[in-house]
Automatic annotation (TrEMBL):
Gene Ontology molecular function terms on file: hydrolase activity
SUPFAM superfamilies in alphabetical order: HD-domain/PDEase-like
Organism: Streptomyces xantholiticus
HD-GYP domain segment(s): 240-435
Protein name as it appears in the record: HD-GYP domain-containing protein
EC number: 3.1.4.-
Residue span(s) of domain HD: 262-384
Transmembrane parts of this sequence: 38-58, 70-93, 113-133, 145-165, 215-235
Record's keyword terms, sorted: Hydrolase, Membrane, Signal, Transmembrane, Transmembrane helix
InterPro entries: Cyclic_di-GMP/3'3'-cGAMP_PDE, HD/PDEase_dom, HD_domain, HD_GYP_dom
Listed PANTHER family: CYCLIC DI-GMP PHOSPHODIESTERASE TM_0186-RELATED, LIPOPROTEIN
Gene3D superfamilies reported in the protein's UniProt record: Hypothetical protein af1432
Length: 461
């Protein structure tokens, strides 16, 4: 427990004591007959076992395997308990699962106790909010649809208590340890929006209604099982997306290490590409792909000799031919990465020009893929507005004027106009992309003739 500051320990202890007080009426010494008649013990135990059963698989996942979804997947079980049981009994339902669930990193005991306490208090608060707004516990089940508003109130109370508790532990621990851990949202990720909790509240209410139906608790699985499966699919999607992001990040870092003159360039081209695509009202699912295209447009530089990339001064004709191969190198590198979709064509064709004078294939006009035309404008714009070790950046206004001058010959006018409109709305943050001081150090690394304008340096993007 040495990793947890004293203030955080005191805070956690206070929360645990509050949770114990909330559950106190159930565990207090009372006549056995009163307990058995006042509490639906069977429902309480079944719900606790169900929640624990949902938590246990995470405990036995392979080392290093990402946590699936977290306790958000199983909140409907806890909210069903809040709608079916008295507040004190509902507070006990999450405790076994929270104590048995997996935690990553020490101190495991403190993490489990903290998670159990926070969920107990949140469930207790949800039960009270449900009752306060008129929710009733009949001998059978909540009366639907009249219980809808009280159930949503309970879900919001659940959300608010978790949010406040997590904010408190984050403040007292000063970010030293994310105590919630698996099986509960970490303080930094904890339920930023109440909307998912409202959905969980509805699922919890349906579970409670079916729980008290003539078909019994088993029928509640008709609500819980589909929701669990949907959350599992959602988790799989996020796991796959995280793997995609890691792949992209590794490739970009490799390029940045090899060509230190354009460090940060790829990310900015990705950002500018998204600005253009949004202005063109591209479908939301395409925005991420066009961002990938911008970020990876220069990945083929990994196949270009470092001495050519870092050479000061003009390139020889042979060196120019070598560097003009980088779009094809890049396309070969990513052709097997299926999730990149249209981005692969953009990587191959982002140096094509509208008049057919570009490379590698001299495509003309709309023969050039749409994403490639977007990335070409974003690439040239960032190359002109970024300070490099061999020249200072041009002002954004001057760069846009240059793009407009070259529209129709080098760039697609529609893409240029979209970038102009986007920057009028959002502006642009330029940055130094070299590790060195931005002062002229000699002739630019380009083979272009004076006046070539936005046909930006072959080795800067």
């Amino acid at each position: 427990m040495t990793a947890i500051p004293t203030a955080a320990r005191v805070y956690i202890l206070a929360v645990v004591l509050c949770a114990a007080a909330a559950a106190g009426p159930v565990v207090a010494v009372t006549p056995l007959a009163a307990i058995t008649t006042a509490l639906p013990w069977a429902s309480m135990l079944l719900l606790a076992v169900l929640y624990a059963g949902c938590e246990l698989p995470a405990r036995y996942r392979r080392a290093g395997e990402p946590v699936r979804v977290g306790a958000g997947t199983f909140f409907p079980v806890l909210l069903a308990a809040a709608f079916l049981l008295p507040p004190a009994a509902a507070a006990l339902v999450p405790v076994p699962g929270a104590l048995l669930g997996r935690v990553d990193g020490p101190p495991a005991g403190v993490r489990r106790v903290w998670r159990a306490a926070r969920l107990a208090l949140a469930t207790w608060a949800a039960a009270h909010a449900y009752l306060l707004l008129g929710g009733e516990r009949t001998p059978d089940a909540p009366d639907f649809p009249y219980a809808l508003v009280p159930a949503l109130a309970g879900a919001l109370a659940f959300f608010l208590v978790l949010t406040v508790l997590d904010a408190g532990v984050r403040a007292t621990a000063e970010g030293v340890v994310p105590l919630a851990g698996p099986g509960g949202p970490t303080p930094t990720r904890s339920s930023a929006s109440p909307a998912p909790h409202c959905v969980h509240g509805l699922a919890g209410l349906m579970t409670a209604v079916l729980w008290g139906s003539p078909y019994g608790p088993l029928s509640a699985l008709f609500v819980l099982l589909p929701m669990y499966l949907s959350c599992w699919v959602f988790a799989q999607y996020h796991r796959e997306r995280a793997a995609h992001q890691a792949t992209i990040r590794a490739l970009v870092q490799a390029v940045d290490i090899k060509d230190r003159y354009t460090r940060g360039h790829s990310e900015r081209v990705g950002r500018a590409s998204v600005l253009i695509a949004r202005e063109l009202s591209m479908a939301e699912e395409r925005l991420e792909i066009v961002r990938f295209a911008g970020i990876l447009h220069d990945v083929g530089k990994l196949g270009v000799p470092t001495r050519v990339l870092r050479k000061e001064g003009p390139l020889t004709p042979e060196e120019r031919r070598v560097i003009e191969l980088h779009p094809e190198y890049g396309h070969e590198m990513v052709r097997g990465i299926r999730f990149l979709g249209e981005a692969r064509a953009a990587i191959l064709h982002h140096h094509e020009r509208m008049d057919g004078s570009g490379y590698p294939y001299g495509l003309v006009g709309t023969q050039i893929p749409e994403f490639a035309r977007v990335v070409a404008v974003a690439d040239a714009f960032d190359a002109m507005t970024s300070t490099r070790s061999y020249r200072r950046a041009r002002p954004v206004r001057v760069a846009l004027e240059e793009l407009e001058r070259c529209a129709g010959t080098q760039f697609d006018p529609r893409m240029v106009r979209a970038l102009v409109r986007a920057l009028e709305r959002h502006g642009w943050q330029t940055a130094v992309t070299s590790d060195e001081t931005a002062v002229p150090l000699g002739p630019p690394r380009t083979t272009e003739a004076p006046g070539s304008g936005a046909s930006h340096q072959l080795r800067t993007g």
